[in-house]
């Protein structure tokens, strides 16, 4: 079973937009109520039976079962009788809100942290139609249950042989979007390691260093627009909360954040396609992204979004038939790719790799990328390629990368 997600811009009418906004609000209320019900049940089991809190204690009978997804789903029927606003929302849309909460609890249980939080007004921005009897998309419009037909911009056709299984409606600062989840009963074989291998090393001085000696500059998407964001947030602070001007500044802030996200994502896709065009195998470091998001360089690491880039590179490599794998990142900058000697720990200001044993000299990040490539070749059982003795200090990769310009933000959709 192969699944794809295509995103398209939709244009609801004024009545449809009001209904979509009301659905988002009702889903938010159902989500928050179900979350409060689970939190109360958990809190009532924390205190010992012979003690209670100093101020107050929320007590639930001991024989009350845990409010899991199925019990809360069955309670929706009674809730619709007491709250008439819930009847206007598609039943499966409300059930998906409960399913989203249940996934959050299961994900928290797996990783051990990240308790789900309540959604404030305006923070719940999407809902899902989980199934359709027939294709809801025609050439110029999409038909959603209880919403009706609305215009859709099919800027690219859906692939042949795929059926629309689900539709997610997303509300962004730039407008409304419909994400079509397409499925097809086809089996795609795994990409086998073959072709020209390259290794990549991610960093802050340069966004990317390739084992061939090419370097990719790191655009400062968030940092370049941080002054404009700070100015908007200072204006928001001086407005009365909930007023019309307050909401206008909020919309500008959301639009700026979306602009930064779009430009960064476009840069990641362009870089991934360029790497896949020059290689048959790509090896990258298996970074501990949780640790890189802490410390004094956390803002710059999050701005580079290495984790998002690696996920995009993995997807683009699969689509282009390029083998992609991750290797152990320990000691890549302390190993000579020419003679495998341990060169010792380098300071961040030391940007050149020089081996005292073999005399190999090259850019520090390029040397690390070459070590990554060699480790990847060993993992797949192929012959290790040694770099040339006359190492270069790195050459910039020619590319047309988007930059975050100051001024009015634009959408890249």
Descriptive report:
It is a single chain. This protein has 413 residues and is α+β, with helices and mostly antiparallel strands. The chain is 38% helix and 18% strand. It folds into two domains: 2-184, no CATH class; 197-396, no CATH class. It has helices spanning 14-43, 69-82, 91-111, 221-224, 226-237, 244-278, 289-292, 298-304, 306-320, 364-380, and strands at 2-11, 126-129, 141-144, 148-153, 163-172, 175-184, 197-202, 208-210, 214-216, 281-285, 323-327, 352-354, 361-363, 395-396. The strands form three sheets. The chain has a six-stranded antiparallel sheet. It has a six-stranded mixed sheet with strand order 11-10-7-8-9-14. Strands 12-13 form a two-stranded antiparallel sheet. The two termini are 28 Å apart.
Residues in helices, as a percent range: 25-40%
Structural class: alpha+beta
**Count of helical stretches:** 10
Question: Overall pLDDT, averaged?
Answer: 87
Unreliable segments (pLDDT under 50, ≥5 consecutive)?
A: 405-413
Distance between the termini: 28 Å
Largest sheet data: 6 strands, antiparallel
Q: What is the H/E order?
A: EHHHEEEEEEEEHHHEHHHEEEHE
Give the total of domains. 2
Report strand %.
Answer: 15-25%
How big is the Rg? 26 Å
């Amino acid at each position: 079973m192969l699944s794809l997600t295509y995103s398209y811009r939709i244009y609801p009418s004024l009545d449809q937009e009001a209904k979509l906004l009301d659905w988002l609000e009702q889903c938010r209320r159902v989500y928050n109520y179900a979350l409060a019900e689970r939190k109360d049940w958990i809190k009532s089991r924390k205190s010992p039976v012979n003690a209670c809190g100093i101020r107050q204690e929320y007590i639930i009978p001991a024989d009350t079962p845990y409010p899991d997804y199925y019990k809360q789903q069955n309670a929706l029927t009674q809730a619709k009788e007491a709250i008439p606003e819930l009847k206007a929302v598609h039943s499966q849309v409300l059930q998906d809100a409960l399913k989203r909460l249940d996934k959050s609890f299961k994900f928290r249980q797996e990783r051990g942290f990240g308790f789900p939080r309540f959604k404030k007004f305006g923070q719940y921005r999407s809902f899902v139609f989980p199934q359709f009897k027939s294709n809801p998309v025609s050439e110029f419009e999409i038909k959603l249950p209880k919403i009706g037909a609305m215009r859709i911009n099919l800027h690219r056709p859906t692939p042949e042989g795929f059926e629309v299984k689900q539709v997610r409606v997303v509300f962004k600062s730039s407008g409304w979007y419909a994400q079509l989840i397409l499925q097809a009963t086809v089996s795609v074989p795994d990409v086998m390691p073959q072709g020209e291998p390259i290794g990549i090393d991610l960093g802050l001085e340069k966004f990317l260093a390739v084992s061939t000696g090419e370097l990719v500059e790191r655009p400062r998407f968030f940092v370049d627009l941080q002054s404009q964001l700070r100015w908007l947030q200072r204006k928001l602070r001086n407005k009365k909360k909930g007023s019309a001007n307050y909401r206008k500044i909020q919309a500008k802030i959301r639009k700026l954040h979306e602009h930064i996200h779009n430009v960064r994502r476009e840069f990641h896709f362009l870089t991934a396609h360029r790497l896949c065009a020059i290689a048959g195998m790509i090896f990258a470091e298996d970074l501990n992204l949780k640790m890189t998001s802490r410390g004094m360089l956390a803002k710059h690491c999050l701005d580079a979004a290495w984790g998002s880039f690696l996920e995009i590179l993995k997807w683009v490599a699969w689509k282009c038939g390029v083998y992609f794998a991750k290797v152990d990142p320990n000691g890549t900058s302390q190993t000579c790719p020419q003679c495998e000697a341990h060169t010792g720990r380098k300071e961040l200001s030391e940007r050149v790799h020089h081996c005292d044993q073999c005399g190999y000299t090259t850019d520090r990040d390029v040397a690390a990328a070459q070590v990554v490539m060699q480790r990847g070749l060993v993992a797949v059982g192929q012959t290790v390629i040694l770099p040339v003795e006359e190492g270069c200090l790195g050459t910039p990769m020619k590319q047309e990368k988007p930059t975050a310009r100051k001024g009015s933000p634009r959408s890249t959709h």
